[in-house]
Specification:
- By secondary structure, the chain is of the alpha+beta class.
- It has two domains: 63 residues, no CATH class; 118 residues, no CATH class.
- It contains six helices and five strands; from the N terminus they run βββααααβααβ.
- It has a three-stranded antiparallel sheet. Strands 4-5 form a two-stranded parallel ribbon.
- The termini are far apart.
């Protein structure tokens, strides 16, 4: 016997989820782009899930294939999916770690476009929202600077700090001898 809220046939790219032992059915969009799976948030209505997945597909299509996708946009997609999978906040340092891993994997496969100042501002703001503290640690910015050096790209961190002004407070750097003890 069909449950009242479960349609007989789901729209394309929409899948149904039900918690183990539960009765509530929810829906989410799911599709693959060049080997990467992209999902949309859980919804109670399959039509809403279909609209979400359709909008996300258009967004991904607008970004183009991996040969011309911007580095920042690719990281944003990866982090967004990761936040959904793990239900926990990702710190800016964690963001940079994922970037390094992704960069190692893609360095040979695609020409890296510059992560624009606007995109860096966007993920610094997002990371601040995810953190309990209103400050970004100097160590985190150093990690990002190292990432750009590794990619042989200009380091946009100073420009971002200048352009964001008081919106971004950077904690004072600890003396180099204590760097290894920083949390």
């Amino acid at each position: 016997m069909d449950t009242p809220n479960k349609p007989k046939r789901l729209p394309p790219h929409v899948v149904a989820y039900r918690r183990k032992g539960g009765t509530r059915v929810q829906y989410r969009g799911r599709f693959r782009v060049e080997g990467r799976q992209i999902t949309t948030p859980l919804r109670d209505d399959p039509k809403a899930a279909y609209e979400d997945v359709h909008a996300r597909m258009e967004e991904v299509e607008a970004m183009g294939s991996s040969s011309c996708i911007t580095l920042g946009r690719a990281f944003a997609l990866l982090i967004e999916d990761s936040i959904r999978r793990e239900a926990e906040a990702i710190t800016l340092a964690g963001y940079a770690t994922v970037q390094k891993r992704l960069l190692r994997r893609w360095r040979e496969e695609m020409p890296l476009n510059l992560l624009t100042v606007a995109e860096l501002q966007e993920f610094v703001t997002d990371a601040k929202r995810e953190r309990t503290a209103a400050t970004i640690r100097q160590k985190d910015l150093t990690t990002i600077a190292r990432l750009f050096k590794l990619a042989k790209l200009p380091n946009p961190v100073p420009e971002v700090i200048d352009s964001m002004g008081k919106a971004l407070r950077v904690e004072d750097a600890k003396p180099p001898m204590f760097d290894s003890f920083a949390d």
